[in-house]
Amino acid sequence: MEGADRMSAPMLDIRGLRLAFGAREVVRGVDIQVERGGFVALMGLSGVGKTSILRAVVALEPFTHGTIVVDGVTLRPGPLPPESRLRDLRRKVGMVFQLHHLFEHLSALDNVTLALVHALGVPRAEAGQRAMKLLDTLAVSPRARALPRELSGGEAQRVAIARALALDPPLLLFDEPTASLDPARRKELGASLAALSRNGRTLLVTTHDVEFARQHAQRVIVMAEGEIVEQGEPREVLGRPQHPASRRLLDAEG
Amino acid sequence: MSLAVLALAAGAIWFVAPARAGWRMDPAQTGAGPAAGTLPVLRWGGDPEGGAPYVEADPDHPSVMRGFDVEVAAAIAQGLGRTPQFIPVSWDSIDQSVRRGDFDIGMSGVEDTPARRARMLETVPYYEFTEVLTVRAADRDRFRTLADLHGRRVGTLGATMAYALLMRRAGVDGITPVSYDDDVHPYQDLQSGRLDAVVLDNIIAARSMRQVPGLDTQPDPLEIGHYVGVLAPGHEALRDRIDRVLLARMKDGTLERIFRRWDVWNDRQAAFETRLVRERASAAVPTGPPAAAAPGLLATVGVFLPALFQAAGITVVISCGSMALAILAGMLIAGGRIYGGRLVRAVLLGYVELMRGTPVLLQLFVIYYGFASFVRLPAFWASLLGLGLNYAAYESEIYRGALEAVPKGQLEAARTLGLTEFQILRLVRGPQAFRLALPPMTNDFVALLKDSSLVSVLTVVELTKQAQIFAANTGSWLLPGLLCGAFYLVLSLPLAHLARRLELRWKAPTA
Question: What is the architecture of the domain spanning A3-253?
Fold first, then answer.
């Protein structure tokens, strides 16, 4: 998977993924391909295995079957490899958690610079400048000195996005980014993600927010009980849902 | 591993059983002496840990006391027409105990000293002893007097005439006095080389030479002293009757028979008794030796204050040193218990349970005396190591709890950012755990400050020990207790204050 081959290959290629918590299999044979620069919404009601898939991609959750290839880096079934063998993966993919998981003891700015300085070895001053620029793009630079517990939900999320973006990974995963946002903030977030996608970043976003997916995603994948039941253009899937699970999703949204 | 340590610990208990400094037993349980019957009782206090030939439990009938002090007390009781009743008491609190009225007379190798004469009532002396210098046999010709021991460590029992003698001579001869809580360990430490000489009563020296091989006692006495009975002030009438009984028993040879039975009779006693009986016969009033004027309270404080300051310094140094060790070792243990493999975790858990589950006093004994056969740590380092390793167990539990309280989500976020496990510990987990751990750590430091008083059993003269010496010299715990407590408060209050402030500042929501 080198050179031209690699450039034409999808950014994320998941095949036959199965993942279990003890005896309970939560992901039951899933294939997902996300092309470079794509913006894919992974949809489904709570508990269908969306988050587990994201966690498997960033090697926080081991899986039992299948393969995950992120821009040429392959993850295989079995126990999680040690961090020392995941360095390539860490450069390829970033993740924004639903609860943000900002470092409580560090200011917003230091949350963003931490990995720049310690994982990439960027000089502190330069890391600070880059972080400030990112916070500025996301319109949270006035809160740079604030501690996470002093930030609103929307501010914390944007700091978390800046933290993931700081390492400039080509693939970015978002877990339920709209869950804690009011409609206005949801719109802003959608615009931010669309801008990222336009600039060539590949996005995989889990959500059960139909409106959000309809407006921003290029492709929608609907899951039910650990399996993919429907996928395609948002207008198609969300306009004329074929599967009962998709219809339930739309009904739930109201 | 832990079995070996336990075995060592058990051995240590067995062989460090202190000779004189003991714990008080419930008089009701000792069942000493015959039933009171119809005769009134003479309650006499002695330290059964004093051992033969003073007072010891009969090996065949452990409830029965024997020794020359026991027999002298019986002779006194008989002369008074009373039945002797034995009250066990720790040797260094005989004065306070008789003053409280726990018994009528204390007799257990009690020394006649100016301070005691000034505060208490003393009987006529019933035995004349000498302070003698004991050295290793190999050093017999090298160390003949204290002057030969310049710059060397000389041990003795704390709060005794011998200790006072060594303190006085420290400035003159340049020796380093080392105070023990019992009279057995000085001789063992002399044999093992921790000390170069021991100064104690000739009876104790003779007994120890039988028990510890390779020692020799110099023939010339350093000082002459007398054993007396001690009574509370206000009991002059009883004291005078006891004096008459003692003098009569000297004249009729009863005391000589007792002392011969216990092999402590010598020419010195014969001359002493003859002299005493003659003096008393001519003296109009049968009182003890002339009482020295008691030094004023302020003067006493003035004498002891510098010593207390120095002792407080030692307390601070030992507390800070062992806390530093406890923090360092505690962090390593906590790290090992969270990040280590199964074997490492099991070993560390065993260590923590062993250290928390056994008394720190026992651990100090094991480190100082138990390990002495292969590593002879100086008392200071043994204290620091003992307290530090003990507290490391507690610190490690604090750190482990604090590390585990840092939300998992943050650690996962740090991993997705490409930080190594060690970087995550250093940059994310550690700093947050530290904030959680600081208040309980300060708490532990205050506890350690006070627990440092335990190291006095390893001959380290720290704050509490110094106050104890002070109390023994002045015969009262009131002033030394207040002063000593004040020192501890001055040391610990700022820490407690710091703990409160940190707790307030970092009482941050962690959700």
Answer: 3-Layer(aba) Sandwich (3.40)
